[in-house]
Amino acid sequence: MRIICQGWGATSRLGLVTNDGMVIDIPAEAARQKVQLSFDPTSMISLAGSGNKGLSELAALFKNPQCKPNEC
């Protein structure tokens, strides 16, 4: 699993990069799946602070993306 951060501050977004290069927007995908994350999905620092719980939540989003390719 690769995690990217685009932007900085209030406009930053975190994303997961799939093996085929698709980027899944973490906040948008969590909203689609109606999942409340234990960290701020706009903050890499918040994700790091959430530890294994946050990584497990990301793994679940990654395994079950509800967006179609090029819509994430």
Low-confidence stretches: none
Helix content: 25-40%
Structural class: alpha+beta
Question: Span from first to last CA?
Answer: 16 Å
Number of strands: 3
Largest sheet properties: 3 strands, antiparallel
Listing every helix as H and every strand as E from the N terminus to the C terminus, the arrangement reads EEEHH
Q: Please, what is the oligomeric state? A: single chain
Radius of gyration: 11 Å
- Mean pLDDT score, rounded? 80
**Sheet with most strands: strand arrangement:** 1-2-3
User: How many helices in DSSP terms?
Assistant: 2
Strand content: 15-25%
Overall spatial form? globular
What does this structure look like?
- 38% of the residues lie in helices and 18% in strands.
- 15% of the residues are buried.
- With 72 residues, the protein is of the alpha+beta class.
- Strand 1 and strand 2 form a beta hairpin.
- The protein has a 3-stranded antiparallel beta sheet with strand order 1-2-3.
